[in-house]
Amino acid sequence: EISQKVKYLGRTFADDGSLTEEVARRIRAGWAAFNAIRRELLQSPQKTRIRLLTTTVIPAMTYGCETWTSKEADTKRLQRAVSNMFEIAGCDPPDMEKQVLRRKLKWAGHVSRMKYDRWAKIVSEWDPRGSARPRGRPPKRWADDIKDSIKIFIHNEALRGNLGHGRRRIGILEARRAWSTVGRDRVTWRSLVRSIQDGN
């Protein structure tokens, strides 16, 4: 049987790799979580409101995002929905692009340290051969965001002058752009994730 989309483990997969349907489902899940706590939310102090939103709504909207290959339009749709919810609650919304990227980087770090017989490791590093490359710009890949984050991290570390103790690690990052190699260094990878958290 051939299907254009299928739901598996709580996520909708499309045959063209599009996230349109999945993002729409995540937004609906976010509003469902928001409406479930709406009364208590609006009666709570702001600090509690922020905590409620970040522990119920945000996880509902980012479920499975570690495996997304999201486009800018997808992230903007998530951001609009989150901004509307946080505005109703009277709170400043988080940056959903960073929320998704941070979760993706954490997962990538786990995958890079897995044994080579794990399926997550195999499919993440699989490079298909023998198929002709289509014309035009190649579609965005899952690892593209990770590679871009590594490049930005190297640049920012260099600007800060943090090349003392980290010179060897920065050298590894520059010499080997493979994210699966970089992720094996827990210290460096945690610094990378933290740089997204801090908004750098």
Structure description:
It comes from Caenorhabditis japonica. This is Reverse transcriptase. This protein is mainly α and 200 residues long. The protein has helices spanning 20-36, 38-42, 46-62, 72-89, 96-112, 119-125, 144-160, 167-175, 179-182, 186-197; strands spanning 5-8, 11-14. A two-stranded antiparallel ribbon has the order 1-2. The longest helix is centred in the middle third of the chain and has 18 residues, at 72-89. The radius of gyration is 19 Å and the shape is globular. Mean pLDDT is 81; it is low at 164-168.
Structural topology:
Blueprint: E1 5-8, E2 11-14, H1 20-36, H2 38-42, H3 46-62, H4 72-89, H5 96-112, H6 119-125, H7 144-160, H8 167-175, H9 179-182, H10 186-197
Strand order of the largest sheet: 1-2
User: Ranges with pLDDT <50 over ≥5 residues?
Assistant: 164-168
| Rg measurement, Å | 19 Å
Shape: globular
Strand proportion: under 5%
What's the number of helices?
10
Order of helices and strands: EEHHHHHHHHHH
Helical fraction equals 55-70%
How many beta-strand segments? 2
Mean pLDDT: 81
CA(first)-CA(last) distance: 47 Å
Q: Which structural category fits the helices and strands? A: mainly alpha
Quick one: biggest sheet?
2 strands, antiparallel
